[in-house]
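JOB MANIFEST
job_type = single_chain_structure
chain_count = 1
residues = 148
[input]
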Amino acid sequence: MRIYIDTSVVGGYYDKEFDAATIKLFKSVERGDITLVVSNLLQAELLRAPVHVREHLAKYDPKHIEYVTLTKEATELADYYIIEQVVGKTSRIDCQHIAIATLNKVDILVSWNFKHIVNLTRIRGYNSVNLKHGHIMLEIRTPKEIIE
């Protein structure tokens, strides 16, 4: 299974509120049950994180991590999410994560961001835009939903 993660998942490993499910998710990566799909956007966001969070992904076998990039097409799709008012302009980075995951046809995008990503109204909005532009419907879940 190919799972796109955003920054909240890496940080969730070290957060008491989210650590139990997040640790189980990363155990699945260690076993090779999951391939993490990691974008250059995530990597850039991690540069501002504490060292232990920034270096977290280095603990895992590179064969279980797939690296993808923010392309022009993903930037344009992210802009459509804003134009269609799925979220506001301040959520542009979240939109870019959604667009990257969509265009790379991941199985699931996983996040702990309940306001702009893992939110039923937003998910429906993102997928409405995706369908309108000929893209896949994207599964969006929390780590807890994936491990259970």
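[summary]
The chain has a mean pLDDT of 97.
DSSP finds eight helices and five strands in the chain.
exit_status = 0
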